[in-house]
Amino acid sequence: MQGFPGSSLQSEDCLYVDVYAPSVPSKDKKGYPVMVWIHGGAYVIGSKNEYSGIIFAQNGVINVIINYRLGILGFMRISDKVPGNYGFLDQQLALKWVKANARAFGGNPSLVTIEGQSAGAASVQLHMTSPQSKGLFHRAVIHSPYTSGYYPVKEDAVVTSTVVSTIMGCDLYDKNCLRSIPAVYIPYVSYMVYSQCMNNSISHYAYDIDKGYQFCGMAPEVLTVAHPQQPYEALLQGRINTVPIIMGHVWNEGLTDSNGAYDLLRTLGPYIYSNDLISLTQVIYQLFLNQIVDHKSYAGNSSAFVQLLSERAQSIYDTYPVAVDEGMSKSYPFGYNGYTKDGPLDANYAYRILYHDKYYYCPSRQVVRRYLERNHKDNAPVYLYRYKQVSYLNKLYYQYGYGSDPVTAVNNDFWSQNLYSSHSDDVNLIFNQSWIYMDDNERALSFQINYALTNFYHTGDPNKGPSQKQQTFPWIKYSHQQDLYTVLIEPHTGYDAGMPCDRVPQCDFWDSTGYTFQGGEERQQG
Predict the structure, then answer these.
(1) Exposed / middle / buried, residue 443 (Cβ in 10 Å: 0-12, 13-18, 19+)
(2) What fold, for 17-250?
(3) What is the mean pLDDT of the chain?
(4) Backbone dihedral angles phi then psi of residue 37, each to the nearest 5 degrees
(5) Which among 60-74, 277-291, 492-506 has the top mean pLDDT?
(6) Predicted local confidence at residue 332, as pLDDT
(7) Could you tell me which of 359, 119, 139, 102 has the C-alpha nearest to residue 252?
(8) How many CB atoms are located within 10 Å of the residue 302 CB?
(9) d(C-alpha 443, C-alpha 430), whole Å
(10) H helix runs in 306-346, sequence order
(11) Which has the higher per-residue pLDDT, 27 or 298?
């Protein structure tokens, strides 16, 4: 059942690909390069129907946009004989189909790029670490990956499947009962379980944001033939299918993407704002940190940790403080995503910055370094970017959606202070879509992104290829020494060169202590 719950376009008959090809044959006898797009949506929602590959076909690239099974039908484990993982296997089968049939639609089967955003980007990284995907692609473009994410193992998948079965009124092993559930009902159950997990309603994941956020078992299962280990561990160990890589994220992923991860802070937010009790967020934030970091000793007894933070929680709090002190400028430089020297800091702000750094910015930097170590041997370049453009569409959303509702404005407090690009804001520009909602600068940037990607599909270098004459600013090849990002923002601003990492102390902290909240038990050295 593809698409969003309740959509009139939903159907179980969903395993198709859309192929966008140039109208004239390629002058190169080998054919056009092929880009395969994997959509996002937390492995629960989304569809190929949300995208159009016309811009890439116009630029001399064949764009294949795929569907794959989602949620329960894509990943529910019933038994060892019915183990799930079908959504990922769908993706692999689509890549095999492209390799086998590329020439039939004018493509070069030896020049395939896999590209995706959010869960689609996570999927790209899974293919990069899957032995079964080796040789099915030759470039990778990764937009906003949840790089350090934990993927479900068999134990997690069984727990989630049991919860799913209970909601549907069936025993996990009662095939007849499960098959009697109307297909149109299943996407609702998928999203219901995902929401319960995010809300700490499933005890197996309670207070474990690292496990709970990563799709709560309805995602590709690891420690399998397709995925012998957690992908993050494989990435750090250099066990990857080596290809040229573009990888990046938007300016503040945590602005919208963190909303489901800290209900305690969000539900108390409106009360605190309306009663001018900003200082209380320090206590709530400390409570929250200890709750997620030291959940084993928590055991439902708040007195066990309210009075004193655990060492691990204290180290996180020191890195992302709420109370104003001399070290504040090191954590939140003046003007950084809405912070002002005279403005009150609160837990909503601190946690969103923490979330951005921990789940996106810092692990991406760490993993890119490991990519580089492995790729250097094969002369495969790596490019790291940050997308900073604030879209006109976001401005409309704020003006018409948030301006009149103070409670909603509180829950989106960054948008009530400043507008910053956040999770998924770059997709329309990648595909040159929603043209009517772009201003001239966005349209110009959209073309520049398309030109760079077109070059990359051809040559593995965004600066060289058929569109290099139209490309007006260089993409910086990443290196340990320079630690530079290419900044994507409207051309006239002057961001035409690399930007150094501006979160070095925070990223060094996560690199040294590990990217899991759970007491720093899994430590990864940067």
Answers:
(1) middle
(2) Rossmann fold (3.40.50)
(3) 81
(4) -100, 130
(5) 60-74
(6) 78
(7) 359
(8) 11
(9) 10
(10) 311-319, 328-331
(11) 27
- CA separation (Å) from 334 to 234, 331, 339, 502? 37, 10, 6, 12
Tens of pLDDT, residue by residue over 355-375, are 889 989 999 988 888 888 776
Q: How confident is the model at residue 407 (pLDDT cuts 50, 70, 90)?
A: very low
Distances in Å between the Cα of 490 and the Cα atoms of 94, 401, 468 are 35, 25, 18
3-state secondary structure of 202: coil
Give the model confidence (pLDDT) of 178-189 as tens digits: 889 888 888 888
> What are the strands of the beta sheet with 382-387, ordered from one edge?
17-20, 62-66, 32-38, 107-117, 139-143, 245-250, 382-387, 484-488, 498-500
Identify residue 40 by its one-letter amino acid code: G
- Show the tokens assigned to 368: 């890119």
Residues 6+ apart with CB under 8 A from 39: 46, 47, 48, 50, 51, 65, 66, 67, 116, 117, 119, 120
- Mapped onto helix, strand or coil, the DSSP state of residue 15 is coil
Q: Which of 21, 64, 66, 16 is nearest to 39 (CA)?
A: 66
Percentage of the chain with pLDDT > 70?
76
Q: Does residue 3 register a pLDDT over 80?
A: no
Task: Produce one character per residue of 447-482: b if its CB has 16 or more CB atoms within 10 Å, e if not.
Answer: bbbbbbbbbbbbbbbbbebbbbeebebebbbbeeee
Antiparallel, parallel or unpaired: β 484-488 and 498-500: antiparallel
Exposure string over 137-155, b if 16+ CB within 10 A, otherwise e:
bbbbbbbbbbbbbbbbbbe
Q: Is 184 helix (H, G, I), strand (E, B) or coil?
A: helix
Which residues 6+ apart lie within 8 Å of 349 measured at CB? Answer: 332, 338, 339, 413, 414
Give me the residue label for tokens 């959504």: 87
For 261-317, give the secondary structure using H, E and C: HCHHHHHHHHHHHHCCCCCHHHHHHHHHHHHHHCHHHHCCCHHHCCCCCCHHHHHHH
pLDDT at 524: 39
How far is residue 477's CA from residue 304's CA, in Å, rounded to a whole number? 49
Amino acid at position 307, single letter = Q
Single out the residue of 127, 28, 508, 521 nearest to residue 312, CA to CA.
521
Domain boundaries, the chain: 17-250, 253-353+390-422+503-526
Q: Phi, psi at residue 356, to the nearest 5°?
A: -60, -45
Query: Residue 401: CB partners within 8 Å, gap ≥ 6?
Result: 408
